[in-house]
Amino acid sequence: MADAEKQRVRPQYRRTAVWHAHSAASGAGRLLKHWLEDRGSLTARLVARCQHFRVQKLSQQLAGSLADEFAALGLASRTRVHQREVILRCDGVPVIYGHTVVPLSATHQQWPLFSSLGERSLGSTLFSDPLVRRGDLQFARLPSGHPLMQRIYRELPELRAYQSLPARRSLFWRKGACLMVTEVFLPAVLQLPPAAVVNTINRKQQPALAQLAVSLNQA
Predict the structure, then answer these.
(1) How far apart are the C-alpha atoms of 37 and 168, rounded to whole Å?
(2) Pairwise CA distance, residues 219 & 202, whole Å
(3) What count of other Cβ atoms lies within 10 Å of the Cβ of residue 13?
(4) What is the pLDDT of residues 96-148, one digit of tens each?
(5) Which of 31, 141, 156, 159 has the fewest other C-beta atoms within 10 Å?
C-alpha cells in the first residue's frame, strides 16, 4: 500500500492500537474510568457484582504475537507466543474479553499454572501469588480492524455495532519472566449492579436456600 493510501485508511480499520499511560486514551467516560484504572483484581471486582461468575475459555495455543504487543513483551520481532483468550461472564452476560500472551522463553517454573488453567481465572492466580509483580497499566481504544476486535466480533456478533472498544493491558512478572494481559471492556460491564446490591440480594436468598436444603434432606 502506498504512503498516500495508508494515510487515507480510516482509523477504525487499522490493525494496531496506540497504547498510552493515561486512561483518557481509551475514550472511556467517568464510570468506566474507575474500572480501567483499578490496579486490583478485576476478577474479584466482577465476582462481587454478580451471583454467577464464569471464565469461558475460547482458546489456549501457540500463536503469532500481535503487531502492537511484541515490542512491549521485549521481543525483537513478531514471533510465536503462548496465547490464551477468554470471555469473562457475569450472570451469563459477557463483560470482559481477555487476551494473555507469554513468550516461549518463559519456563514452567516461572509460570507453573498457566498451561493448566482451564476455565479457572488467571487473575485470581496472579493476585494470590506473592512472587508476582505487576507493571504499569497502558490504555487504548481498539479500532474495529484490530485483531482482538475481529475476534470479539466473531464470538459476540451482537457487538459489531461498536466500531471501537476501550482496553487496557499490563505486564506481570514472576521469577524474571513476563506475561501480558490485555482486557477489553465490553459495554455490559457498565450495567453491573454495585457490589452492595448483589450482597443484599444474596443475604435475602440465604434463608430460602437454607429452607430448601432442609426440605431436600427431609425428602
Answers:
(1) 9
(2) 25
(3) 11
(4) 999 999 999 999 999 988 888 888 889 888 999 999 999 999 999 999 999 99
(5) 31
Question: Is 144:133 a contact under the CB 8 Å cutoff?
Answer: no
Pairwise CA distance, residues 99 & 120, whole Å: 14
Answer for the pair 64, 80: CB distance below 8 angstroms, yes or no. yes
Beta-carbon neighbour count of residue 106 at 10 Å? 18
Q: Which three cell numbers stand for residue 8?
A: 487515507
Average pLDDT, the chain: 87
E-assigned strands of 31-176? 53-64, 80-90, 93-103, 133-134, 138-143, 164-174
Angle at 81 between CA 75 and CA 82, to 5 degrees: 140
Angle at 151 between CA 95 and CA 91, to 5 degrees: 20
Beta carbons of 34 and 99 less than 8 angstroms apart: no
- On whether the CB atoms of residues 101 and 69 are closer than 8 A, the answer is yes
Question: Is there a contact between 74 and 38 (Cβ–Cβ < 8 Å)?
Answer: no
Rounded Cα distance between 132 and 138, Å, is 18
Residue type, 25: A
Grid cell at residue 133:
509483580
